TrEMBL record:
One Pfam family recorded for the sequence: Chitin_bind_4
Assigned GO CC terms: chitin-based extracellular matrix
Protein name: Larval cuticle protein 2
Gene name tied to this protein: LOC4803600
An MF annotation (GO) of this entry: structural constituent of chitin-based larval cuticle
Signal among keywords: yes
Statement: the UniProt record of this protein carries the keyword Signal: yes
Length: 126
């Protein structure tokens, strides 16, 4: 249940704080709003005429997946897809930051260390 609350809180926050790119966005109308809550899960959909969209599905085990999207002030289509399960909230999207690649020297050093494990020390007493 907590996962559902957190997912919808994040989605609501994303929709609420999404920057307004056009002055007519304050008058945007909801084109689709559906919610199907069942004993075995749920499905929701939201489509607003200013290009904001949200969809989510969940199951009885607390797993959820979905997406939300909008048009940024720069005119870029922002699309986030996510899964929320036993491994936590896992968003994916081209606008999300990603870690830099591991430097080649570090990759080589890790490979060398793996190929040359340190032998256990015998006879050392402290």
């Amino acid at each position: 249940m907590f996962k559902f609350v957190m997912v919808f809180a994040v989605l609501g926050l994303a929709a609420a704080v999404a920057p307004v790119s056009r002055s007519d966005d304050v008058h945007a109308e909801v084109k689709v709003l559906s919610s199907d809550v069942r004993a075995d899960g749920f499905d929701t959909d939201l489509v607003v005429d200013n290009s904001i969209q949200q969809a989510a599905s969940g199951d009885i085990h607390g797993n959820a997946h979905g997406s939300f999207s909008w048009i940024s002030p720069e005119g870029e289509h922002v699309d986030i897809k996510y899964v929320a399960d036993e491994n936590g909230y896992q968003p994916q999207g081209s606008v999300l930051p990603t870690p830099p690649p591991i430097p080649e020297a570090i990759v080589r050093a890790l490979a060398w260390l793996e190929a040359h494990p340190q032998a256990p020390e015998h006879g050392v007493h402290h």
